[in-house]
Amino acid sequence: MSEKPEADSSQERLIVGEQELKSLAALSLDEAVAVRRWWQRLALSPVELKQLTPQPGLPRGVRAALRRCDALDAVLLTQAFRELWHTLPSTTVESSFVDARLEQWSCIALVLAELRAETPGKALAARLGQQASTGKPIMSELRFQQILTCRTPEELVQRLRRALALAGRSEMSAVRLADVIALWWREHRGSLSARPTHRFGFILANDYFGAAAGYRHDDT
């Protein structure tokens, strides 16, 4: 296998901004860049993509084939996943925990395929906590709590797909979405940060309730 060229960190920081990079809890800079470029090639139109990168978009139907997958094993067989996997840094794909990595990244690919348009830097939970036309959060607090208590990868994918549908599949960062999924997987494998502010539950709850606090008032 040929070695991948070393990344140009100055160029990477143009793709993933400084503030967005600081918000990441589980992804490396190289992984974040790979995620954004892959999602852009997967989801954007040729005109939109040309404004961001000289790389060609993925063939028509690739995203649809990924979205039709109903199991993580099926994701591994798709062209979309292969394209993502081969753009990840060697430290990721050549890890001694490659089986676990494959599961994690298949989950990321399957969820990100639901995103149609992104807002770099914006968190999924902050989008879900925004005010809907009803005057309440886009996602109810009960449904949001169900995301925080997911116990299996299948449940996580199901709930995140529903969350993206409620959010209009837009107005959030592909990179930050991938990051919270990677963080869930890290904790699922038993690696819990010693810092509460770096844990899955706290990060999502802080974003969600922070967004809701701007318009919601307790009844008195």
Automatic annotation (TrEMBL):
<dbReference type="Pfam" id="PF09485">
    <property type="entry name" value="CRISPR_Cse2"/>
</dbReference>
<dbReference type="InterPro" id="IPR013382">
    <property type="entry name" value="CRISPR-assoc_prot_Cse2"/>
</dbReference>
<dbReference type="InterPro" id="IPR038287">
    <property type="entry name" value="Cse2_sf"/>
</dbReference>
<protein>
    <submittedName>
        <fullName>CRISPR-associated protein, Cse2 family</fullName>
    </submittedName>
</protein>
